[in-house]
Amino acid sequence: AVNAMIYMRNITITTAKSATYLENVGEGSFGYKGLHIDLKLNETRKGMAEYRLYAEYPFELQIRTVIQDSWSILDHKIKYKKSIPNSLKRRINTLAALFELADREFRAIRDATRIELEQTEEIYPQIEAETKDAEVSASDGGDPEQAVQPGRYAPLNAFFFLRIAQHFFPKFEFESHKVDGFTQEIISLKPNISRGKFNFYLREKFSTIKQYQEEFEKSGERMNPFTMMRHCLYAGDKEVFSAILTDTARDRFDKWLNDQKK
């Protein structure tokens, strides 16, 4: 996005062909989608010495999605596409349709993901309500997941994880692939964990882990938010989440906890 903004400040758009532009598209023909824009340098850029030789020449910019570009590469590799047997035409048509479907589904997934993230921005009060149910059950020695009122229980997923994590670490930039991987790791250790229970672990143990962080970082090492959440989960349920820390990290943390009791 930043590169696009820099680029657009230095050029002038003369024409833009339809976003559904297809090369050689027609019945019995094959092509690929892409946006084609005719451009020229703006007056500021024209005056620069390095552009004077070709300042007056127009040029074309072709914009495609990754999948559209992949199909364009394959399209060029298919040497015979016109006067060919119908069975081969059908195969090429099938391949073209699969690429178009993949492009459409990818965009649908992207848009749905954005909507999910926007919706989870507003639900933290609901998660807090579930957490209170979990707290009451934990104090009574019951199963927190069973104590959540009907309609309130929601299993933990990457979107809920991110919203909860951002509440505790508002200044940290969470990378999507790390969020996804860590969420899956948590679920693999506790398959029925709810978003409220995850929030409960963090809220109950966060101050303890902050104290441990201060002691831990005196050696010059650092604890990032993911490491802190690992310690919160382990402190919340050592039996279930014993594998969420390495042996060295677990032994070091247990020693610190024991020292605090003395």
Automatic annotation (TrEMBL):
- What is the protein named? (P)ppGpp synthetase
The upper taxonomy is: Bacteria, Pseudomonadati, Pseudomonadota, Alphaproteobacteria, Rhodobacterales
